[in-house]
Amino acid sequence: MIRLFDVLLSAFGLIVSSPLLLVLLLVCWIDTRSPLFRQERVGRNQQPFVLVKFRTMRLNTASVATHLADASAVTLVGGFMRRTKLDELPQLWNVLKGDMSLVGPRPCLFNQNELISERIRRGVYQERPGITGLAQVKGIDMSTPRLLAETDAKMLKTLSISDYFKYIIMTSIGKGLGDAAKR
Predict the structure, then answer these.
(1) What are the pLDDT digits (tens) for 134-151?
(2) Strand pairing partners for 87?
(3) Relative to the CA of 94, which of 8, 36, 88, 138 has its CA 20 to 30 Å away?
């Protein structure tokens, strides 16, 4: 049932937001000359997939978890995109393709060994990663791998349709800070 909602909502979101996506693509192109950011992430069953976002950091920034990245690498436009979560909109394509769900554990990088180990122990990789979830609305980020994995597992174990919509609504109204670059 959740996959059906993922497909319907991501398709609807891409169609409705297409004018905004085009404007953001242009603004990000002016900002960095490379508006889309593609990065290999750990997906369902630990399979790799390419996550797509709007670029918020300067080109050639080290490929590390956001909480390890230098905040000075975030562009002015990128800072706005992160605060408003507009940088996440291209991930609707990942959801439509089936790489992700709207709600699930945030996908990590393959070099985040501690988080991967914690998630494996808790069976988190049996489900699709998501754009948002319980950890995001609670402000838990990848800097606390054990807590994040525990929260992800708890969410997946109890996820209901009402929780699915609750996390989407909470995220869209700005609940939770998500990952932030170090200051």
Answers:
(1) 999 999 989 999 999 999
(2) none
(3) 138
| Angle formed by the axes of helices 161-172 and 2-16, nearest 10° | 30
> Model-level pTM?
0.90
The pLDDT averaged over each successive group of 10 residues in the chain (183 residues) is 97 98 96 94 98 92 72 90 92 98 97 97 97 94 94 97 96 68 46
Distances (CA, A) of 176 to 27, 157, 169, 170: 25, 21, 12, 8
Residue 146: CA atoms inside 13 Å, Cβ hemisphere, count?
0
Q: Count Cα atoms within 13 angstroms, Cβ side, for 182.
A: 8
- Report the chain's terminal Cα–Cα distance, integer Å: 41
Cβ proximity of 95 and 27 under 8 Å: no
